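PROTEIN DESIGN WORKSHEET
SECTION A - STRUCTURE
LENGTH: 314
TOKENS:
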């Protein structure tokens, strides 16, 4: 009976969180407008400067929102269930032109329309709901809901994990493989889907018979498939005389005002990700910290994110 009450309580928290998050999203200064990247020519290749801006932006957005492991290598067990809330802060290259936007056309809806204007965040804040359920044969499944604060964008994810070794021997770490799929919702300009494959290792330690500390680490690959929706450049007009005339054309001329960016396939938009974390369990309460390092390459370079999580392991 006690376990059933705990599960009802956890489910109630999940429903409450899902109810609150959309209400916060009504203010949307950080919704992304791809028009701020400039218009690519119809025959643009993947190494065109405008397309590279598009690729860098989508890679950083994927790194910030894609489902993170947020758990050690061992699984919950066939009767295990976990509900948790996490707060992630993910770096972005805020001074890069693909975040600053073009003259008269910012990337973020809430930023003043001038190049280099204030308002571009130095990092994204991503509140996240994480639910995991243990299954037989050392496997588990999970779902995540990540919200880009002060926007209308959310990423919903599904994950699965299988433990290859569950620390049956005292000093032998648990080893597991994890896969996750994420899909972006709420963006008017961008269609983004992520796939990630990770390997994890962890080893728990008991502390005074009251708590358990579990450090963990892992490495994986994050792939992003990116499409743009049909964009319309008509609403924007650049009056900055320092900008070349060709770049000031905002009505499309003979090409018309509608355009799209080329699709970025999984193989065109992938990067490695290293992560390390520490989980502390006391009774049914768990507290976790995780550092993720994304190796995005190119102008995006290496980025970091910090996640803090509190959960109920019932």
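SECTION B - SEQUENCE
RESIDUE ASSIGNMENT:
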């Amino acid at each position: 009976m006690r376990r059933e009450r705990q599960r009802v309580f956890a489910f109630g928290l999940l429903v409450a969180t899902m109810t609150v998050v959309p209400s916060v999203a009504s203010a949307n200064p950080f919704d992304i407008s791809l028009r701020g990247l400039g218009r690519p020519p119809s025959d643009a290749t993947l190494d065109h400067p405008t397309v590279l801006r598009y690729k860098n932006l989508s890679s950083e957005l994927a790194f910030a929102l894609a489902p993170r492991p947020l758990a050690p290598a061992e699984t919950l067990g066939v009767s295990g269930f976990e509900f948790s809330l996490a707060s992630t802060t993910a770096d972005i290259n805020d001074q890069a032109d693909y975040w600053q936007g073009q003259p008269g056309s910012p990337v973020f809806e809430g930023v003043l329309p001038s190049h280099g204007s204030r308002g571009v965040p130095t990092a994204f804040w991503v509140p996240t709901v994480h639910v995991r359920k243990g299954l037989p044969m050392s496997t588990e499944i999970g779902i995540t809901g990540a919200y880009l604060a002060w926007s209308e964008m959310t990423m919903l994810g599904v994950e699965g994990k299988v433990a290859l070794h569950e620390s049956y021997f005292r000093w032998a770490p648990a080893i597991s493989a994890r896969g996750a799929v994420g899909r972006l919702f709420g963006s008017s300009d961008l269609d983004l889907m992520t796939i990630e494959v990770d390997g994890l290792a962890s080893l728990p330690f008991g502390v005074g018979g009251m708590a358990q500390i579990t450090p963990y680490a892992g490495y994986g690959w994050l792939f992003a498939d990116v499409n743009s929706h049909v964009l319309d450049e008509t609403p924007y007009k650049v009056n900055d005389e320092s900008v070349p005339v060709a770049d000031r054309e905002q009505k499309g001329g003979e090409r018309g005002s509608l355009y799209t960016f080329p699709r970025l396939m999984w193989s065109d938009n992938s990067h490695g990700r290293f992560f390390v974390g520490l989980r502390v369990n006391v009774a049914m309460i768990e507290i976790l910290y995780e550092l993720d390092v994304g190796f995005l390459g190119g102008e995006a370079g290496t980025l970091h994110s910090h996640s803090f999580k509190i959960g109920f392991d019932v």
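SECTION C - NOTES
The first strand starts at residue 81 and ends at 91.
Residues 2-313 form one domain.
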